[in-house]
Design brief:
By secondary structure, the protein is α+β, with helices and mostly antiparallel strands. It has one domain (15-167). The protein is built from five helices and ten strands. It is globular and about 55 Å long. The chain starts with a strand and ends with a helix.
């Protein structure tokens, strides 16, 4: 969709959101294991013998420092059983608001994730899916970029990487 940007007055075309259909953990399962676990467009539950993993779909917005547009991600975060259950119980309650601790469960292009990143998951059902904010004091290049922004060139590189990955 092309439009005239109110910020700069130039004609722009929206970037696609970089959306992931499932949490990384789920993608690591075999086809048979995936069939035996739950995945919807907003929730994922993976049951193992000794542990159950619970994930929710969320939004992360990356500032682009040299453009009027931001880069949107459709990502997954893991929540504790208590937080997940409260979120599910209030899924259709438009007045529900909450904040949860979560772990980033989507690994984004151009970053190495030797371990998950701690996040704050902000739920406000009047506006849709939860928003995710990585913990600012966590040392990782992704966290640095989240709080300091990325360039338009970097945003377009990520978009092209994801679009090309989907074609293959």
């Amino acid at each position: 969709m092309k439009y005239i940007c109110e910020c700069c007055g130039e004609e722009k075309e929206d970037w696609p959101a970089l959306a992931y259909n499932s949490p990384y953990y789920y993608t690591c399962l075999s086809e048979e294991e995936q069939k035996n676990n739950e995945l919807t467009s907003d929730l994922c539950v993976v049951e193992e013998t000794e542990h159950t993993h619970r994930f929710v779909r969320a939004v992360l917005i990356q500032e682009v420092v040299d453009d009027c547009r931001d880069l949107d991600y459709g990502i997954w975060v893991s929540l504790s059983e208590k937080s997940f259950n409260e979120y599910v119980e209030n899924y259709d309650n438009k007045e529900f608001e909450a904040e949860y601790f979560g772990w980033l469960s989507t690994y984004l292009p151009d970053y190495d994730f030797p371990e998950s990143i701690p996040t704050t998951v902000v739920v406000n059902n009047t506006i849709g899916r939860p928003f995710v904010f990585p913990h600012q004091d966590y040392e990782h290049p992704f966290v640095h970029d989240f709080y300091n922004g990325i360039t338009k060139e970097e945003a377009e590189k990520r978009i092209n990487w994801v679009l090309n990955a989907e074609k293959n």
